[in-house]
Fold this protein.
Amino acid sequence: MSGLMLGVVTLRTADVASLSGYSVQQVRQLESRGVIPAAAREDNGYRRYSGVHVSALSAYRDLAFAIGPVAARSVMTELPRLDPKEAIALLTSTVTEVDELRRQVVAARSMLLSIQSEASVESETGDERGGEPTHESMTITELAEAIGVGASTLRYWESEGLTAPDRVGSGPRTARLYRFKAIRDARITAALRSGGYGIHEIRAALAVMRELGDTSSMLAALDDRLGDLALRGAAVLRAGGVLSGTIGEEHP
């Protein structure tokens, strides 16, 4: 059944459920929440839907996949209340949101590749006793400035076991000193945080890296996330294509 035909054919709730992939109960719930336009009512009280409702449900499904169901419901309920310029801005923001996530992951991946390359070079400059590679040590202030986070963030990462700086001095004058491994772990943590990873995920990734000695598993995870974001980007574009055609219209 073509979209044009759907637009003029009267559909029952069961028909809409079958065409959209949602259950009858879900269709009614989404209608009651304003996610899709209210159905017209026949004299006997039965709901009367059209292809507009099927298209709206398809757009909602794509948005829910792309930006989450809560945000998707917000977009779907807000859109009909906006004037065309505001509605277009709202749709554009959903595309921008997914693209910003993609940019963050790309940046994180680039940083990890850089760290991996540096680690390879550093491994060739270690001392003859097989110790850790020579590397300029950094204070907490210097490292915070170098990776673009606050000193309090570095202290939090330390409390979570993500970094392990040395302590120098004694008593109240004790200070943190970051050497090669602590600097590397802090930079990797910063990269993965910018890529959207949580503390628990980063702790697991660092444990693997410390055991295996490389960042390949982290890069693979970021590649998987890029693949997921590509699918989400395609979904939000499909939804935008459907919804942009409804801007300024009044639905039955």
About this structure: The chain has eleven helices and five strands. The longest strand covers residues 175-178. The chain has a mean pLDDT of 83. Residues 3-81 form a domain with the Multidrug-efflux Transporter Regulator; Chain: A; Domain 2 fold (CATH 1.10.1660.10).
